[in-house]
Amino acid sequence: MSRNKDGTFSVGTSGNPAGRTPGTLNRSTRLRLAIEESGDELIKVLLENAKAGDPAALKMALERIVSPVKPVAEPVTFELSGDTLTEQAQSILKAIAQGELDPSTGRQLLAAIADLSKITEVDELQKRLDTLEKHMSEKRQ
User: Pfam families recorded for this chain (predicted)?
Assistant: First the structure.
């Protein structure tokens, strides 16, 4: 094995010239195959331990069986007050502060207003660009 003066291998030379034998499985593949072979037995032991009160086994079993619970907000009717997006956002914050609107729903409404402001901004920029292009083409003629 030849190395350069800086200790690296010369081009075309490696530290393992023979390389890995074709078909050799890496550690994670061997582990996965071993688990697959005894999967039913492992599940049985896990469930037995969970039933016996093992908190770690119970947690693992429940995490695999039960989907995570997501908060579900009931539909609300809400009047946005204000002419501008800023005023409408302020009305949402006020409703949250007064307990008329739950914070999760309020956060979603504020995010929707933020998204709308971005869309509005793009629309306004497009209109301005169209106006400028029209003005420039009229000047050229």
Answer: DUF5681
Judge whether 122 and 115 are in contact, CB under 8 Å.
no
CA 92 – CA 81 distance, rounded (Å): 9
- Same domain? 49 vs 90: no
Domain range for 111: 85-140
Q: What are phi and psi of 25, to 5 degrees?
A: -90, 140
Neighbours of 109 (CB within 10 A): 21
Q: Which residues contact 102 (CB under 8 A, 6 or more apart)?
A: 73, 96
Same domain, 93 and 50: no
Is residue 81 helix, strand or coil?
coil
Residue 123: name the closest of 109, 24, 134, 115 by CA.
115
pLDDT digits (tens, 9 = 90+) for 96-110: 999 888 898 899 999
The secondary structure element, H or E, covering residue 129 is helix 103-140
How many Cα atoms occupy the beta-carbon half-sphere of 113 within 13 Å?
20
Question: What residue type is 93 in one-letter code?
Answer: L
